[in-house]
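Notes continue from the previous slide.

Worked example: a multi-chain complex. Inputs as given:
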Amino acid sequence: MGEEVKSKGEEETWMVESKEWYLLSYAPHGVPTTDHLKLRSVCLSLSPQSIPHAHLAIETLFFSIDPYLRSRFTGNLDGLYFPQFELNQVITIFGIGRVKVSNDSKYKEGDLIMSASLLVAEYCVIPSSEIFGKIDAASGISLPDYLSSLGVPGFAAWLGIEVVGDPKPGSNVLISAASGGVGMIAGQLAKIRGCRVIGSTGSDEKLRLIKEEFGYDDGFNYNKETDLDAVLTKFFPNGIDFYLDNVGGKMLESVLNHVNKYARIPLCGMISQYNQVWTERDGVRNLLNMVGKEVRMEGFLLKTHFNRFGDFAKEMEGHMKEGRVKSKIKINTGIETFLDSLNSLFSASNIGKVLIQVKA
Amino acid sequence: MGEEVKSKGEEETWMVESKEWYLLSYAPHGVPTTDHLKLRSVCLSLSPQSIPHAHLAIETLFFSIDPYLRSRFTGNLDGLYFPQFELNQVITIFGIGRVKVSNDSKYKEGDLIMSASLLVAEYCVIPSSEIFGKIDAASGISLPDYLSSLGVPGFAAWLGIEVVGDPKPGSNVLISAASGGVGMIAGQLAKIRGCRVIGSTGSDEKLRLIKEEFGYDDGFNYNKETDLDAVLTKFFPNGIDFYLDNVGGKMLESVLNHVNKYARIPLCGMISQYNQVWTERDGVRNLLNMVGKEVRMEGFLLKTHFNRFGDFAKEMEGHMKEGRVKSKIKINTGIETFLDSLNSLFSASNIGKVLIQVKA
């Protein structure tokens, strides 16, 4: 006990106020609100004595806002099968932080780290085993880029194109949510492979962006189209060889009416489906086409492929340095924006990768 | 002209009466009837002079009745994408025949041949290029077995298990239409691989058969079950690793709620769906589970894999000779039974592989 005795003044210098988002109740369907996720402010001691062995006190800097997060507070396991957040606990997220206090000799104060287990809080204490990697501040790559092209969406796009899907040069490729975090990168990777790439987006502004910034051959705004079948006929007169599905539902069904023999459909996510319980989701009625066209459809998650992260990062850094892959990033400022930032993924409003910069 | 002059008597000895089924009108949905497929009798000359170069006159012996046939007279291309039969033409089928007259030196009268392009007729004249292979009458294998274990359903089952699906020993395997032509063989092949195999069937008699004759570990009669989810929970307490889908629809959807990580679902056909236009088919609402469980679903057709037929036949003959693979065959007698034989595939009535023996 004696060693832990400190003067009130010493302890107080280590106290920080930390705002954090915790889960009040599950939201099985619909748009989550402050009935489900709540912001609160706590006082936290970062004194070296209060940090357990092999743990780090982290000041959070950037959070990666990704659609899978929505599936972690539905209260049921169907769909993505990510573990559910626990009630009354602070939720966790992929992001970048700075080490404030280290109780692990591999890390020191000031180190920039990435982790999939940051708390959605201004400060947190986590085991050093949860650190995904250190960031070299002299790399010339910005912190937001580490969470976009080199982060969750970039890795997902790379897996969909390079590992799971493997479209051949000249393939006719469709990418849904084409201006989203995953889609914008996937489209550029497919172009690098020599494919003809068409994007589906939710606004004219996004449509302009994928053509002018991301090098898509063409695309459409699905919110302006009443007949998806006619659109696909127009943009794919020779059929679809490859579809990276980020949305599911009606788009997937329509695509299955236009697939070519041996088409590949990596399933990266189904953003149109996350806010509904599965029995209320759009059913895909034409899976029989997969038999006649001998289509392969395959879901994938990043975790399974973490052993490829090094290959991915090396390749992607090369693309970025050569200017072959660009990224559009929407940075919302302040941890207070978490709920709105998350919900923006499911509206037509956001473009590109969404991040939160925790402090201005 | 002079050489073709024959006496009326000579020509008449080559004339045969041949009953044949032709397509009167397409049947987009529902059970086809004699409004769609009609039987008629024609007179056909089999005189050597009337057989073109590199053609054969064939007396048909056995027809293989397979579900894909239904898709060839819906009048639209969705689903299996087999070419549609033409109106007022005799329909074609996979079967066995005997050469009556040969105008190709590779074949002689009496040869037993297999072809995917026999007419559904008692006699027909076809190009020798359409012959799939000769049958060795001394092989010890019966003609019906050539159309079951060694024919369309056997090859489909082998592709689903050995090529497309590749379940590991110990895998928890579900096979739908488990006592049907494909299912009965697939279940036995999965057992040979050391899997735990459960079958879904449509009657108690079929259920008994798959357990007692085909060596399934267990199974259920889906017509007796009101809650597919509960049935799958009961038979797959550790989840489903592999599902050979022969039916589609509600069964596929239920399976997707019970799949394990990395489950494989080869799509062999969807017999529950063939009698409906696609917009009226059951939609599968939980494809998102394929993402979370990283499931691969893949359709396949036999034609793509014909280069493997030799490997298949050799392996299957070995299984048959060692008694490891058995086959239940329902033989209907007389070409008149064609329509009823076809429709029996889509009812709960038939068991095993359905053939027609053209003449008693």
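Summary box: Chain A touches chain B through 41 residues (CB under 8 Å). Confidence is low (pLDDT under 50) at residues 1-5 of chain A.
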